[in-house]
Write a structure and sequence with these properties.
Blueprint lengths: L1 H27 L2 H17 L10 H18 L1 H6 L7 H10 L11 H13 L2 H11 L5 H8 L3 H24 L1
């Protein structure tokens, strides 16, 4: 059983390695770190192959492992600094909190909440995520984004509104858990 599981892990890794690597590179913003992350996840999987007998979808399990490794790295202060830590301006957090019906001043942002918000941002449609990232990461205005993308400022503002509503709903759901 053990060798069969190792073989299945190797097959899943070979099949999805490029996808894992592409995702990890986006997460780390560095190809070398992405390779290390994917290799670390695979090495960990190989080390625990015996305990994976109940896992039906090894590809999904490997991706979850890659994602968890990325989160672990992100939490390390130096890695976050090198990657250009995502800073969400207080104005944006306030807007999301208010959209969720929360009092921003009473909202204590825990690391779990920030993780939930980060996950929710990842789940946004690409057009909405791009607007949120352009404003929060790059500090771009709607005018700058419109000039760079050729998309009207009104459309970009609408995308942000939709994104904020989705993020507020995710935040609301997280708080209900």
């Amino acid at each position: 059983m053990g060798q069969d599981r190792v073989h299945e892990l190797e097959q899943a890794y070979r099949k999805r390695r490029k996808g894992f690597l592409a995702w990890a590179e986006r997460a780390t913003r560095n190809f070398v770190d992405a390779e290390d992350l994917v290799q670390d996840a695979f090495a960990s999987a190989l080390g625990s192959a015996e305990s994976l007998s109940g896992v039906d979808d090894l590809e999904a399990w490997l991706f979850a492992s890659v994602r968890n490794k990325a989160r672990d790295r992100w939490r390390r202060k130096e890695t976050r600094r090198q990657a250009g830590e995502v800073y969400v301006p207080l104005e944006t957090l306030t807007e999301i909190a208010e959209s969720a019906g929360l009092d921003p001043e009473e909202l204590a942002l825990s690391s779990e909440l920030l993780d939930a918000l980060e996950d929710a941002i990842e789940e946004l449609p690409p057009e909405q995520r791009a607007v949120i990232e352009a404003q929060t990461l790059d500090g771009q205005t709607f005018k700058e984004m419109a000039e760079a993308s050729g998309v009207s400022q009104d459309t970009l503002a609408a995308r942000k509104r939709y994104a904020v509503k989705k993020l507020a709903a995710a935040l609301d759901e997280w708080l209900d858990i």
